[in-house]
Recover the amino acids of this structure.
């Protein structure tokens, strides 16, 4: 099976790029925006101003390329915990994401104009749900698609298979994106599954499966755009396998030195998705150092504003524990609410 | 609210069918699906005639996968529909427990109300009709232990219809368990047309002063039989149908115990950790001053529901065992 690529490891185009100059520039900006957040989030985590954080460094293109094909108020995104880059590109406010990774309830809900479900922690359970979302969109006659993300480890879960089966049987407008980053915490893909191309699994469900270079934004964007168009046309789901690498640890609490060599990570760093995209822009004469500097300043200013906003969010109050359990508080929640509220009704 | 209208005598599965029909007719967001619910009309015929009437987009068969069905239903509910999913037997819910525990009950909470799941999951449960292995389980206690869901187990056709319509209107996920024994085992007058009954209300089905029998679903009938036998001996038992397990109407139970001073809780699930244990605990917490004897439980034994029908009746509580328990609390 071929891997779809448009850029070589330095970013030089290997074939005609089906994206406009404007799109290429906005794509690069989206990658840099995600990377900036990730780098600064790790600093906040070390300062104790963020909880456990799952970094995504190295996987920006695989997420951003898909999110760029979606419209937040129309389409749906069901991400797992490593998809902060997809969330940023999909329109989640940075301050909300900071609060979310602070485990602050104020960050748990997407704004009304963003159809993103809060990051899923259990593995692959959101795949049947995403199939249901997509099917419901179609039943309601909406011109909309859903995108669901999991990792390579998630393809071992039963829900991955049940979800793909439902999506294919009902021709649901769904993009199932597997970020094959080589590792499920400490377990390498070779010990996760016999088949080495996750995209091959699509054959079992009678749907297209595509393997794409997940560190090549142009490739991911193009593949996802095609899958979204197919879904919108009522032709059903597509399984997209993005080959990428988790350069960073599994979470801020993980030590990858226990299970992998740094040589491996170093080799992947040479295929960094952002360097490659910048290489592409430079090759096409669309970028220079001054633009890069201006972008860095803009992103840092945006991030600092977001931190300020997040810091201003009020501390969660004890009685919020029993709020939003039901649409209306039931007697048991009511009793707990009154206790947590200090007896005041 | 029950409006003045005609009634007919129908059984519980017909009442469920009527409710589904009326819900589909009234609200275009309602969709009905599960294994064999479409063309076949459900293994118990609960959805009989609905696919021809409403089409395959609104009433459809799914692949055979319970986790898939519940997960799919969660997604559909989040995206604006009002799904009613059928699980063929409550004992087949187990593959879907990850969806139920990880997402169904907590989606509203974990998204601060941004996404909610107005979903009804219907499943037949319980024994007494000699079904094969796994078909007679009563897993209500597992479901009651999930924060954010409601659990309803009706015991009559009239209650089933009104409560199912209320469950479909409800903004939160509801489990609606239907006792297989009652599907065709009870007939009663059921109002015509659309009506709902309040969720979260227990009801006194027989008044008495000697002791209170608390049950739900298929066990209400058993308790009524026991109360009839006791009445011949001059012992008037009060029978309460808990009906909604979550949220439980504790005040109605306490009020009855305040009158009788004694309580027997009857359920057909395995005794340990069963929902009757929760009822007994609440009475111990809130009705201790009224109790003149310990609360006694009559339940299934701590064993799997027997897969061999010849001994099924020794597992499932009957009037005799209920009366033995009544004797215990009266003699205490």
């Amino acid at each position: 099976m071929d891997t779809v690529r448009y850029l070589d490891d330095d970013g030089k185009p290997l074939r005609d790029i089906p994206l406009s100059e404007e799109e290429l520039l906005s794509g690069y900006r989206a990658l840099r925006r995600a990377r900036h957040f990730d780098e600064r989030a790790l600093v906040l985590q070390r300062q104790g101003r963020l909880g456990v954080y799952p970094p995504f460094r190295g996987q920006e293109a695989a997420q951003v390329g898909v999110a760029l094909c979606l419209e937040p108020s129309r389409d749906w995104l069901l991400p797992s915990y490593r998809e902060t880059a997809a969330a940023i590109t999909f329109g989640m406010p940075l301050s909300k994401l900071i609060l979310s990774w602070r485990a602050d309830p104020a960050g748990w809900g997407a704004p009304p104009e963003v159809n993103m479900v809060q990051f899923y922690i259990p593995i692959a359970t959101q795949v049947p749900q995403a199939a249901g979302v997509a099917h419901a969109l179609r039943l309601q006659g909406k011109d909309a698609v859903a995108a669901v993300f999991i990792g390579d480890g998630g393809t071992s879960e039963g829900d991955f298979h049940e979800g793909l089966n439902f999506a294919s049987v009902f021709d649901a407008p769904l993009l199932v994106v597997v970020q094959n980053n080589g590792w499920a915490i400490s377990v390498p893909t070779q010990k996760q599954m016999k088949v080495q191309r996750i995209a091959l699994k699509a054959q079992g469900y009678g749907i297209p499966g595509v393997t794409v270079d997940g560190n090549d934004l142009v490739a991911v964007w193009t593949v996802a755009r095609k899958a979204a168009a197919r879904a919108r046309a009522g032709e059903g789901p597509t399984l997209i396998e993005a080959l990428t690498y988790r350069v960073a640890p599994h979470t801020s609490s993980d030590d990858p030195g226990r299970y992998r060599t740094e040589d491996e990570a170093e080799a992947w760093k040479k295929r960094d998705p952002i360097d490659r995209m910048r290489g592409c822009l430079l090759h096409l004469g669309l970028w220079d150092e001054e633009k890069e500097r201006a972008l860095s300043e803009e992103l840092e200013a945006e991030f600092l504003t977001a931190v300020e906003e997040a810091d201003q969010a009020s501390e969660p109050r004890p009685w919020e524990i029993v709020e939003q359990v039901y649409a209306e508080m039931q007697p048991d929640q009511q009793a707990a609410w009154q206790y947590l509220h200090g007896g005041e009704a | 609210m029950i409006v003045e209208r005609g009634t007919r005598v129908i059984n519980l599965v017909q009442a469920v069918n009527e409710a589904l029909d009326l819900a589909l007719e009234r609200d275009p967001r309602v969709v009905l699906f599960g294994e064999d619910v479409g063309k076949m009309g459900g293994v118990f015929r609960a959805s009989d005639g609905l696919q021809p009437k409403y089409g395959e987009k609104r009433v459809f068969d799914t692949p055979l996968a319970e986790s898939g069905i519940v997960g799919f239903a969660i997604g559909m509910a989040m995206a604006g529909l009002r799904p009613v999913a059928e699980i063929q037997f409550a004992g087949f819910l187990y593959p879907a427990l990850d969806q139920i525990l990880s997402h169904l009950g907590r989606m509203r909470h974990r998204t601060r109300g941004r996404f909610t799941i107005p979903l009804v999951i219907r499943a037949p449960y319980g024994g007494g009709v000699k079904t094969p292995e796994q078909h007679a389980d009563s897993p209500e206690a597992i479901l009651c232990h999930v924060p954010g869901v409601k659990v309803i187990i009706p015991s009559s056709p009239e209650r089933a219809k009104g409560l199912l319509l209320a469950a479909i209107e409800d903004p939160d996920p509801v489990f609606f368990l239907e006792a297989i024994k009652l599907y065709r085992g009870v007939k009663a007058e059921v109002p015509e047309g659309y009506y709902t009954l309040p969720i979260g209300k227990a009801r006194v089905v027989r008044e008495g002063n000697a002791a209170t029998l608390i049950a739900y679903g298929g066990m209400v009938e058993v308790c009524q039989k026991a109360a009839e036998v006791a009445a011949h001996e001059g012992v008037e038992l009060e029978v309460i149908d808990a009906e909604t397990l979550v949220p439980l109407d504790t005040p109605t139970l306490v009020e009855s115990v305040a009158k009788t001073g004694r309580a027997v809780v009857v359920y057909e699930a395995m005794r340990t950790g069963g929902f009757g244990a929760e009822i007994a605990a609440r009475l111990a917490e809130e009705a201790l001053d009224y109790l003149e004897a310990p609360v006694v439980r009559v339940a299934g034994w701590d064993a799997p529901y027997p897969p061999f029908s010849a001994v099924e009746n020794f597992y499932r509580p009957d009037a005799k065992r209920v009366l033995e328990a009544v004797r215990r609390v009266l003699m205490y």
Q: What stands out?
A: Chain A touches chain B through 40 residues (CB under 8 Å). Residues 256 and 262 of chain A are 9 Å apart (CA to CA). The radius of gyration of chain A is 21 Å. The longest strand of chain A covers residues 174-180.
